[in-house]
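B., you asked whether I could sanity-check this one before it goes into the benchmark set. Here's the sequence:
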Amino acid sequence: MREVDEFVPQFYDTKPLTGDNPAVAAKIDAARWAPAFNRFGKPYRVAISTFGRARRLHFTPESPKGEVLAVYSNETRADFAGKPWLHLDVSHNDAGELVLSYRVVGRFPHANRLPVGDVFQFIVPQPASVRMAFESVRKMGGYCAGVLFFRWPSPYESDTLDPDEVFAAIGLSAAAPPAPAVQMADAGCAAVTCSDLYLLNGRPLQPNPVRFLVSSSQSIEYFLPKEGVPARLLDSNHLELRLSAYGGRRAMYIGRVVTASAARFTVGTAQ
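And here's what the prediction gave me:
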């Protein structure tokens, strides 16, 4: 350590994702690690995870705790939430991360992608897990120079906390999640006015089902929902989108709307 100016202990991915280890983050024990880090006499910043991951588990008599067949970073909870052939179990690990386990209990309709008994598991950071890690780092004292958060999300990720969520979790801001909104893009139709609609949802991990109502300022002639998205035309001025528990995305393509003339769209939650 003589030649080192500063170092970064990373408290994530410290163990392989085995069947009995559903965790990305590692719990930070300040009493254990502060003496180990401070004894070097060098500034250090502790890295805290703010990203999630998914994995597929396969169970056999030889692997009763589950064999990890694959680890993913681009699977989406919305593709699993609310499906009748899946059973959801919700838990938290020692680091405070949310663990969503979707077990196949019926015939998987997509080319037998998952056999009955397999589990697709999402390990998701929570504001509480980040806050717990941050408070532990604050107790280290000595040469501890702060924290690093890994990592900021791309615009369409839903299992990685965005900066505003992280800052609110550690008390640097009191920002509430933004209200849902509709983003509209011209779909380029020649003979009619058509728009591609996206739901911007600041709370994609709500633990209860949510019903969104999208209102149009012009009469809707017809609506083409994206395949697999639970959206439908209610009447000439309203679309309905129903999301199952934990089934949201920060940015979700709803579908294409055709109107007689240019329209404005708004969205709200409904009972």
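One thing to flag: The chain has three helices and 15 strands. Otherwise nothing jumped out at me.
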